[in-house]
Amino acid sequence: MAKQKKKKVITRLRRTYRLVIMNDQTFEEKWSYRLTGLNVLTAVSGIAMVLIFIGIMLISFTPLKRLLPEYPDAEFHEQMIQNAVRLDSIEHELMVRDQYIRNLRHILAGDSRTKIDDVPDTVELYGNLNMEPSKEDSVLRRRVKLEQQASLLGQQFSNNKDNIKKMTFFAPVKGLISNYFNYGEGHYGIDIATEKSSSVHAALPGTVISSFWSLETGYSLQIQHPNNLVSVYKHNESLLKEQGDLVVAGEVVAFVGNTGEFTTGPHLHFELWHNGLPVNPQDYIDFE
Predict the structure, then answer these.
(1) Are 22 and 77 members of one domain?
(2) Closest residue by Cα to residue 188 from 244, 243, 262
(3) Are 282 and 270 in contact (CB under 8 A)?
(4) Mean pLDDT of all residues in the chain?
(5) Where would I find the H helices in the chain?
(6) What is the model's pTM?
(7) Which of 7, 89, 167, 199 gives a 20 to 30 Å CA spacing to 44?
(8) pLDDT for 71-107, tens place per residue?
(9) 270 CB contacts (<8 Å, ≥6 apart)?
(10) Bridge partners, residue 35, by sequence
(11) Does 102 lie in the same domain as 26?
(12) Would 142 be classed as within a structural domain?
C-alpha cells in the first residue's frame, strides 16, 4: 500500500505540464513552456535557498543586524569594552595593594631579606575576594573601643573613686519608673515600664559575668564594669549576650520582657552596684 502511494507521488512529479501564455481575445499562443512537478519543486527550493543566503549575508555584514531585538547596539558594545578595561584596572590596583601590604609586613617584622617585588603583568582574578570584616577583626575593634572607654572611666575615678557621678552612663531604656529604689524594703533597683521587645542597652562598657534564666527574675544579665561597678538587668524577654562577652556603652544586650514571677507587665528591673553595695540608679542616669 505504501509502495503504491510512493509510486503515485513519483508519477505525479514526473508528469509533463505546459505553461502557456495566450491572447485572451484571439486565443493566440504567445509563449509556452514545458515543465514537470519535479522541476517546479527544484526551482522553488533553489530560490528559497538563495533568498535565505542573501538574508543571512545582509544581517551579518550590514547594519540591519542592529534591528534584531537581542543584538546589542554600538553604545552597549562600547560600554562593555569600557567595563572590561575598568575591571582590569581594578584587578591591577588590588594586586599593587596586596604587594604593598606584604612588603610593609616584612618591613615591620624587621625581615632583612625583604625586597620590593615587582608587580607581575598578569593579574589573578579576585572573584572570591571577601571584603567583609572577619570575626577576629570585629573582636579586636570592640576590645580597643572597650579599652578606650575603660581608660576614660579610669581617669574619672582616679580623681575621686567614690564619686561615680562624674561617669557618663548610657540609659538602658527610656520609660516611666513604676517602682523606685528602696534599700530598706530590699528593692535594690528601679523598675522602668516601657514597650515590650524594646532594646536594652549596656549602661557602661564591661564584661558579661552572668547570663541566665531563673524562676523569679526570668532572663537576667549582669555586667562587670571598671572600678567595682556592676549593672544588673532583669525580667528580659531574651538575651543577646553570654557570659564572657565584651560590651561597649550603649550596645544592645537584651530585649524588654515580662519573664519571671515578680513582674506585673513589660518592664526592666535595673540595678547598679558599687563596691558591693547597691546605689540608686536615678542619681546617675536619666530614664525619661
Answers:
(1) no
(2) 262
(3) no
(4) 80
(5) 2-14, 37-61, 74-108, 135-159
(6) 0.48
(7) 7
(8) 656 666 677 788 888 888 888 888 888 888 887 777 7
(9) 172, 173, 189, 190, 191, 192, 203, 231, 232, 233, 234, 281
(10) 17
(11) no
(12) no
